[in-house]
Amino acid sequence: MATLVCFHAHPDDEAIATGGLMAKAAANGHRVVLVCATRGEVGEPQEGVLNDGEQLWERRVVELAQSTELLGAEPPRFLGYEDSGMDGEPTNDNPACFWQADVDEATGRLVDILTDVDASVLTIYDDHGGYGHPDHIQVHRVGLKAAEQLGLEHVYEATINRDAVKQMIESNADNDEFDGPTIAEVDNFGTPENDMSFIVDVADHIAAKKAAMIAHRSQIGPDSFFLQMPDEAFVMAFGQESFNVPGVKDTGGPAHVDILPGL
Fold first, then answer.
1. Is 258 within a domain?
2. What is the span of the domain harbouring residue 232?
3. Burial class (CB in 10 A: 0-12, 13-18, 19+), 202
4. 248 class by beta-carbon count within 10 Å (0-12 exposed, 13-18 middle, 19+ buried)
5. Domain-located, residue 147
6. Cβ distance 80 to 109 under 8 Å?
7. pLDDT of 9-36, one tens digit each?
């Protein structure tokens, strides 16, 4: 049995980016551990979700626990930093936020967790955090440094298949209900397909992945475009998860695999 550790920035990132991998690894008998850098303090809550006096981070911690249970993972562990918010926001300057964290100190916190659970496989983000979010970039930096310190062999960068996203946008050109990004906005998203290392087929675990996404009610409302997708379209959008091997480009296209090497 291996131990898969998925290192993410905020609650809900795990469901969207690696929920299928987590569910599949758990179903295959592996130990699955989620580490979250922040508690998602700066997210935008759906209207009417929070109770009187309830802080957003409190709700998001509860939602994350529900998500990990649905995915077959252990209760989440946290590095203890605050959400930095989107790039360019004043919250980026919060001295307690993850973006402002001392990288060596944050690496030490992650190393302690990876050592405690005897990590076999670690997922982080690509070097620009998928879409430039400061916390995602910091996950990449901290995760890569922790893996190097421990000599961890199996490290993978969760990424976005840029070409697939463009195809999805083009296919929805006449769909007035589509509220996703524009072609121009995804020019720097994720990774071009020819630079990606692996695509993991998670279609058999799409129900668990979708349930985990739904658990994040404060962030993903029932009217979300993604949750309104017909089942077939949802599988096409979320039934595969993409990963890079750090430092490896020009792969000629990803290998389509049942699960990542090391699991």
1. no
2. 3-242
3. buried
4. exposed
5. yes
6. yes
7. 999 999 999 999 999 999 999 999 999 9
DSSP lists the bridge partners of residue 256 as 199
- The whole-angstrom separation of Cα 2 and Cα 191 is 27
Tens-place pLDDT, residues 31-75: 999 999 999 999 889 988 999 999 999 999 999 999 999 999 999
Q: Which of 52, 97, 95, 66 is nearest to 79 (CA)?
A: 97
Q: Among 81, 99, 80, 103, which residue's Cα sits nearest to residue 90?
A: 99
Convert the pLDDT of each residue in 217-260 to its tens digit. 999 988 887 788 888 888 988 999 999 999 999 999 999 999 99
What's the number of domains the chain is made of?
Answer: 1
Beta bridge partner(s), residue 155 = 122
Type and span of the H or E element at 81: strand 77-81
Pairing of the two strands 154-159 and 240-244: antiparallel
The pTM assigned to this predicted structure is: 0.93
Cα–Cα distance for residue pair 247/129, rounded to 1 Å: 14
Amino acid 228 reads Q
